[in-house]
Amino acid sequence: MKHFSSTSTLARRGRAALASGLLALMAINPGLSLAADASAPDTLIRELSQETVEAIKADKAIQAGDLQRIVKLVDEKIMPHVDFDKTTRSALGRHWNQATPEQRERLKTEFKGLLLRVYAGALSQFKDQTIRQAPLRPGATEGGQVEIKTQIVGKGEPVQLNYSLEKSEAGVWKIWDFNVLGASMVQTYRNPFAQEVNANGIEGLIKMLAEKNKKPLPAKA
Length: 221
Fold this sequence. Notes:
Blueprint: H1 2-5, H2 9-21, H3 41-58, H4 60-63, H5 67-77, H6 84-92, H7 101-123, E1 130-133, E2 145-153, E3 159-167, E4 173-180, E5 183-184, H8 185-214
Antiparallel strand pairs: 1-2, 2-3, 3-4, 4-5
Helix pairs in contact: 2-7, 2-8, 5-7, 6-7, 6-8, 7-8
């Protein structure tokens, strides 16, 4: 627990940036997310982003900071677009090979729970920003992996928010990492996770994440 709570400057920077920028994965009109076109990565991000802005502005509960509602919305409508197998495996790095198949499933479940909490808190901070997406260069998707670059535009300097996506065997693009102001979500968690595994093993990391996820959410952010 000690290792994770003393998160590095990079981790603090990443979480602070998430609080102002991770909107394109955190809210969507009911039913839209699963219908979003995942056959092209830039189209997927653009559709999610555009509809997210509209949903946030129209949803009084989200604007009021209702975290329970936000968590439910994210879990049902956004998480299907995230490849948690790759995200968790990448965050664990070499330690992933130490985990049994059963431990890997538990790690994915707990990591998802952690990210849901982070995203819910981040979404509660979003008010009047808009999203600007850079065009995708020709041939960028040919290797099955791509980074989509966007900016969160509002008061002050634009916030850089980039998405790493990979094409599945089924031909569907999935998000597996985010980069906010130069800080990768996967890399942000890699060092704290490694410290915990080195100190207490894979079971220790699972326990630590589970304890964090058991803490009740406040009624509002």
